[in-house]
Specification:
There is one protein chain. α1 crosses α3 and α6 crosses α9. Helices cover about 45% and strands about 20% of the residues. The protein has two domains: about 70 residues, Winged helix-like DNA-binding domain superfamily/Winged helix DNA-binding domain (Arc Repressor Mutant, subunit A, Orthogonal Bundle), CATH 1.10.10.10; about 170 residues, Beta-Lactamase, CATH 3.30.450. The strands form three sheets. The protein has a six-stranded antiparallel beta sheet with strand order 5-4-3-8-7-6, with helices on both faces. Strands 1-2 form a two-stranded antiparallel ribbon. It has ten helices and ten strands. By secondary structure, it is of the alpha+beta class.
Length: about 290
């Protein structure tokens, strides 16, 4: 649901905020798109408001509508704007050698995801050498935190109060996806206790997935490393070995990130927080839930 605060608000600022929220919801639909009725339910806005925003975004090329399904998809203007920042994710750049090595070691598909606001976003994918690769999600996929093992791992790295608030903020979107808040919080609690988010039954039938957080300098996760495979490849002793290799990769990524962050941002480590984009921000207590 789209949140506004009482002091916010010139009407123009509120409109921009709502338009951006609609864009993020549309992005979750990837190539299949999102129905108007679901955008209304997930945003908490009334139908005329959502329709008006969509109409303007379509006119600007930020969103397009499939003429057959009537579903809304991210438009070409957004893709073109993104080309202006081809090096937007330094975390992926420095993590890539470790992702490639991990995929080679385990033989299965490896993903890197980050948290952005209330979502988890896949920013990298590398395939292994096993004949059957489980390509469960595409790079750029945006999902509410807690949907999928990567989102569970990211939530588990946060304090319980913060992760609970994020899940509650996503309630409308989770409902549309058929997810219950209590089920996600149970998965997060298990992942927090074990350090691993594991889905024995993955998004695709006969598959499995496991994710672990990449530790950040402030205790929160920089991202999450995920391995997806056929279910019989993530059982018993092999599961233990895969998780061990994942931990080594995550620790290497975290260490390398810390080294490069210190060079780019001398203030890092001295009362500052560094996010997944490589920017340092002065910390004033714990970061507020976005």
């Amino acid at each position: 649901m789209i949140e506004t605060s009482a002091d916010d608000t010139p009407a123009g600022a509120q409109t921009v905020r709502r338009a951006m929220a609609i864009l993020r919801l549309v992005a979750c639909g990837q190539e299949r798109g999102v129905r108007l009725i679901d955008l209304v339910r997930m945003s908490g806005l009334n139908r005329p408001t959502v329709h008006r925003l969509l109409k303007t975004l379509v006119q600007e090329g930020a969103i397009e509508q499939d003429p057959e399904t009537r579903r809304y998809l991210v438009g070409p203007e957004i893709n073109l704007l993104g080309l202006a920042r081809t090096r937007r994710f330094p975390l992926l750049t420095l993590a890539d050698p470790y992702l490639i090595e991990l995929a080679h070691q385990v033989g299965d598909t490896v993903f890197l995801s980050i948290r952005h606001g209330h979502d988890s976003i896949c920013i990298g994918r590398r395939t292994g050498h096993h004949p059957i690769q489980v390509l469960s999600i595409e790079v750029g996929v945006r999902r509410p935190l807690g949907v999928g093992v990567s989102g569970v791992a990211l939530l588990a790295s946060l304090p319980p109060r913060e992760s609970t608030a994020l899940v509650a903020a996503n309630a409308a979107r989770l409902s549309v996806l058929g997810e219950k808040q209590e089920d996600i919080l149970a998965r997060v609690a298990t992942a927090r206790a074990t350090g691993v988010a594991h889905a024995p039954a993955g998004l695709m039938p006969g598959t499995s997935a496991v994710a672990i957080p990449v530790p950040g300098p402030d205790g929160n996760a920089l991202g999450a490393v995920t391995v997806t495979a056929m279910a019989n490849r993530l059982m018993q002793d092999r599961y233990t070995e895969v998780v061990r290799q994942m931990r080594l990769a995550a620790e290497s990524i975290a260490r390398r990130y810390g080294e490069t962050s210190d060079k780019r941002n001398p203030v890092a480590g001295k009362g500052s927080r560094v996010d997944g984009s490589g920017r340092a921000r002065q910390a004033k207590g714990r970061a507020k839930t976005p």
